[in-house]
Design a protein that fits this description.
The complex is a heterodimer. By secondary structure, chain A is of the alpha/beta class. Chain A has nine helices and twelve strands. In chain A, strands 3-2-4-5-1-6 form a six-stranded parallel beta sheet, with helices on both faces. Chain A is elongated and about 65 Å long. Chain B is α/β, with parallel strands linked by helices. Classes of the chains: A alpha/beta, B alpha/beta. The interface between A and B is medium-sized, with 21 and 24 residues.
């Protein structure tokens, strides 16, 4: 993407939201509200989760005319239970292709878009699952930034732990407070948007995230919109430099934090350069 | 140059001269430059502008002397070390003549005394094999006995207004000198109760709290940023390498903030950490302190029975005497 494509700092995307929860009832309420908004907007909506079909159906109890919507094909309820084994590792590109097809089908049938609530805790329990699913989250996020497809992704902190869930939460442009120290997400203004803080508390997470996803960014020159970046220390910049080199990418980090320009200079980074946003 | 003084040193010769007025300054340091001219040795002077003028007035001709601009406001120790290495590299193939460098460092005030004394010792290590004769002028007026003693322990020779430099028996090998110092200097602000005290703080909270203090003290934004990044790097080291309990304290007055970070460790294994240039591409080993030294030029390291402490200060540096 051309560097000039980065414009002023804008609002973050709200079409791909992560919700890391301790209280399933609270999550079900948010899920329902998110789907109702989609129905009101004329979208086809899907509720997918690890619970049984009956449980998922029950969780949507407050939706008016639930069964009629299901019969009419505007609301899809899908249980992952029994479909994937306990340690199933997703092939990152497969669900992206499936959701792209579902979105195209919905548009073809006259819906205004496709909207999903996905409770995917069961797919990110082991390190291998998490690694693959993180790649999927970034790919689907890239698809979402440019297509009428949106998602609310729920993850159970009681099972994954806050640190485990952060590996997935940070790949969403928006997550509930405290779910991720930074966000590394798709944007229409650059190749990647980076927001939040990267310091000791986030080094391992940032390192893993960039390593997993920078090879998925198309093109040799990767423009990172850092307008929402509040802080990054030398380890964060070195991680970016290391993974850019490994992936054969040249990164331009757009930020108005003068200290980051200074730090890049001190470190004499070769694969990362910085440029002002404004 | 008398044979007895210099022949012992193949590589780096590091002299110090304590002057008390302009007259002593000229009598001590003009002959050093004049000798360079007489020998046909490359001769470089980097001293404060007015004092550079005094030397110009007292040299036969100044064509053979390179006068470099001096600005102690923006200088930091890693930059000074890299600058010295560049300068030496530039003059290296000079027909076997040893480079003469008359170089003034910032005043040894506040925490900067620790920074620049470590710099003087580290120069003895980094430059040891290089063909350089450096002489460091220091204004002795108001200098504390402790600072004077440390300067004597970090220089091979002493300049005098009456004759050639003499061998200095107080010199100590740099590694031994730095390790023996243990307890470092204090900033005068530390005499008061700390403005802020945090135990095992997380870096993000610390930045937010410190930012509020720094803004209230009306530090310019660039200094606020430098402080926040410097403290984050030091805090990261403390948590990763030193271990808990990590105690952070801060003192402030309008225009100045001092932060200390103490961990339970024994300090870095490399006594020269933070000051020696790091090649691009190096990923580990002292990067955090090397960066902190560049962002916060007043930085002091000390090892005590309580642990390892880094002190950083920004704003109105060198305002108070050591």
């Amino acid at each position: 993407m051309a560097q000039a494509a980065v414009r002023t700092a804008g609002a973050e995307r709200l079409d791909h939201v992560c919700w890391v929860y301790d209280d399933p009832v609270d999550f079900h309420q948010r899920a329902t509200a998110f789907l109702i908004d989609g129905l009101a907007a004329g979208e086809r909506v899907e509720y997918v989760g690890s619970d049984s079909f009956d449980d998922l159906h029950r969780q949507l109890g407050v939706v008016d005319g639930l069964d009629e919507l299901i019969s009419a094909g505007q609301l899809v309820v899908r249980s992952l239970s029994g479909i994937y084994g306990d340690d199933a590792v997703v092939v990152p590109t497969e669900p992206v292709a499936a959701y792209a097809a579902a979105t195209q089908a919905a548009l073809a049938e006259g819906f205004s878009g496709y909207r999903v609530v996905a409770e995917a805790t069961s797919l990110v329990r082991s390190p291998e699952q998490r690694d693959a699913f993180a790649r999927y989250e970034h790919l689907i996020d890239r698809y979402m930034a440019h297509n009428p497809f949106s998602a609310l992704c729920g993850y159970d902190a009681r099972i994954l732990g806050r640190d485990g869930a952060a590996h997935i939460a940070c790949l969403h442009p928006h997550a509930n407070a405290g779910a991720a120290p930074f966000h590394w997400s798709a944007t229409t203004r650059a190749d990647v948007r980076l927001a939040g803080e990267i310091d000791l508390a986030a080094h391992d997470l940032f390192d893993a995230t960039v390593s997993r996803t920078i090879p998925l960014v198309p093109g040799d020159d990767v423009v990172v919109d850092g307008a929402g970046l509040d802080f990054i220390d030398h380890r964060g910049l070195l991680a970016l430099d290391t993974h850019a080199r490994t992936a054969g990418r040249r990164v331009t980090l757009m930020t108005d934090l003068s200290i980051v320009h200074r730090l890049t200079e001190i470190l004499a980074l070769r694969w990362v350069r910085t440029q002002g946003v404004s | 140059v008398t044979a007895g003084t210099m022949t012992r040193h193949e590589g780096f010769v590091h002299g110090v001269g304590f002057y008390e007025d302009d007259d002593e300054f000229v009598r001590m340091f003009a002959p050093f430059c004049q000798a360079g001219l007489d020998e046909g040795a490359p001769t470089v002077v980097r001293v404060e502008e007015r004092r550079a003028g005094l030397l110009r007035d007292h040299l036969d001709n100044t064509d053979g002397v390179e006068f470099l601009a001096y600005d102690d406001q923006y200088v930091h120790a890693p930059g000074a070390m890299a600058g010295a290495l560049d300068l030496i590299a530039r003059h290296s193939p000079s027909g076997g003549k040893r480079l003469r460098l008359l170089g003034e460092l910032p005043p040894l005030a506040g925490l900067a005394r620790d920074t620049w004394i470590r710099y003087e010792a580290t120069a003895n290590h980094v430059l040891r094999a290089l063909p350089v004769h450096a002489l460091c002028p220091y204004d002795a007026r108001g200098m504390s006995p402790a600072a004077r003693s440390e300067l004597l322990r970090t220089h091979h020779t002493i300049a005098s207004p009456w004759g050639p430099e003499i061998e200095n028996a107080a010199y100590e090998e740099p590694e031994q000198f730095i390790r023996a110092r243990h307890d470092g200097v204090r900033d005068p602000l530390e005499a008061d109760a700390p403005r802020l005290e945090m135990l095992d703080p997380n870096p993000s909270n610390t930045r937010h709290v410190l930012e509020a203090v720094a803004r209230e003290m009306q530090l310019p934004p660039a200094q606020v940023d430098s402080l926040l990044l410097g403290v984050t790097e030091v805090l990261g080291n403390a948590i990763r390498h030193g271990g808990r309990p990590v105690q952070l304290r801060a003192w402030s007055r309008p225009g100045r903030v001092v932060v200390s970070v103490r961990d339970a460790g024994e300090g870095p294994t490399d006594p020269f950490v933070g000051l020696v240039p790091i090649e691009p591409g190096v990923r580990e080993g002292g990067l955090g302190l090397w960066i902190a030294h560049q962002l916060c030029p007043e930085i002091a390291l000390s090892v005590t029975d309580d642990g390892f402490t880094v002190r950083l200060a920004v704003g109105m540096g060198q305002a108070s005497p050591s």
